[in-house]
Amino acid sequence: MQNTFHRIMIIGGSGSGKTSLAREIAKITKLPSVHIDWFYYDPGWQLRKHDLVQKDVIQAANEPEWIMEGNHTSTMKYRASLADMIIFLDIATPIRLVRTLRRSLQYRGRNRPDMADGCKERFDLRFFRHVLRYRSQGRVRTLAFLQSLPAAKLKYHLKSRREVQAFIQSLTNSHQS
């Protein structure tokens, strides 16, 4: 694994482990972790104006070092153009659904660290439907997006917990040498 990356983009369906992987990579690389959801919501889950989101995400993406996790397709192409590495967490729907439900229960009524202030976790049936539909909709778009990127762009397509753990171990090893 190359050892000279400064911008890492992590994408995948809800509950795929984007935030957890960003946290692990940040520990290993000392790169700052940026959660895309921070930019998209105001307190009470109110969507921010599109132009403000674009401005803030572009400003963050222009920083020299980061790990950015989150999908939000409106800024995905720009972030990918700057990323040294793109990681797609393509985890099975039942696993993502269980993780999402567990997270919802764990943080119920409280803010998650990866969400904007004032966005308290809640059970939302529409969101769980979104989790269920990702495989047939969002995943298809993500795969097409990854295919459209230059072949030279460093990409990882991780499909299981085992592959994620192997990636983390490889990254750890490359930073110890």
Automatic annotation (TrEMBL):
It comes from the Bacteria. GO terms for molecular function: ATP binding; kinase activity. Residues 67-119 form the Phosphoribulokinase/uridine kinase domain. This is AAA domain protein. SUPFAM superfamilies: P-loop containing nucleoside triphosphate hydrolases (SSF52540). Signal peptide: none annotated. It holds the Pfam family PRK. InterPro entries: Cytidylate_Kinase-2, P-loop_NTPase, PRK/URK. The lineage of its organism: Bacteria, Pseudomonadati, Pseudomonadota, Alphaproteobacteria, Hyphomicrobiales.
